[in-house]
Specification:
two-stranded parallel ribbon, 5 helices, seven-stranded parallel sheet, alpha/beta, 17% strand
Length: 229
């Protein structure tokens, strides 16, 4: 039985990851345990990763860690305030950095530890109105590669960069059938993703089946990043 830490595991992709990992000890970091999956193997850690916080409740040995918190703040560049940029930075980059620094001792004690972070297709494929989130997630991709090199060969570090996915975080973008259909048509597979599909990739990267993969940005995007139709 492995100890898996899921930052942001009560909603969306994080919750799906928790649901896909039965038989493991799950340590879920979130501000609220509403919607937390039920099970004797679920341990709730009440913390706000966007602020300086004590994560001393983390297990002594950490076999896997996935950082799920994110943000979607889209608008023209000239309308972004400094607070907008700083908020996206805190949620997406600094939160991940804080959790990883406190989890590092536990990761070092595991046999085959794996870390999974999250980016967005908007880093590699320029999109209008994404300046703030693409900048913050670009830093996450840089962190992924830097730590994968620094922590090799002991700890593997990878990142998933999805396209638009059907989660509560994206509700404003896909709150009508027309919006969902229009978004789907921008992808070669003619639909948007769902949380379970992204969670399955995360679980694969956490598992020993992906034992020769590190430092990679995995694009789970319905073909958008590589195909034009």
């Amino acid at each position: 039985m492995k100890n898996i830490v899921i930052a942001g595991g009560t909603k969306g992709i994080g919750k799906q990851i928790a649901n896909l990992l039965p038989g493991n000890n799950l340590f879920v970091i979130a501000r609220s345990n509403v919607d937390l999956p039920v099970g004797s193997n679920i341990h709730f850690i009440n913390a706000d990763v966007t602020a300086h916080t004590d994560l001393s409740m983390l297990p002594e040995v950490i076999d896997g860690l996935v950082y799920c918190p994110g943000s979607i703040n889209l608008k023209p560049f000239h309308r972004f305030s400094e607070e907008d940029f700083l908020n996206d930075w805190q949620v997406n980059f600094m939160g991940a950095a804080r959790v990883l620094q406190q989890a590092l001792p536990g990761l070092k004690k595991a046999d085959t530890p794996s870390v999974v972070l999250f980016s967005t297709i908007a880093v590699s494929l320029g999109m209008p109105f994404h300046a703030s989130i693409a900048s913050a997630k670009g830093a996450v991709e840089g962190l992924t590669k830097s730590l994968a090199a620094e922590w090799a060969p002991k700890i593997r570090v990878n990142c998933i960069a999805p396209s638009l996915t059907q989660t509560t975080l994206a509700d404003n973008l896909i709150n009508t059938t027309e919006k969902i259909d229009a978004a789907g048509k921008r992808h070669p597979l003619q639909r948007i993703g769902n949380a379970r599909e992204i969670a399955e990739m995360a679980c694969f990267l956490l598992s020993d089946k992906s034992g020769w993969i590190t430092g990679q940005i995995m694009h789970v995007v319905g073909g958008m990043s590589a195909l034009k139709i």
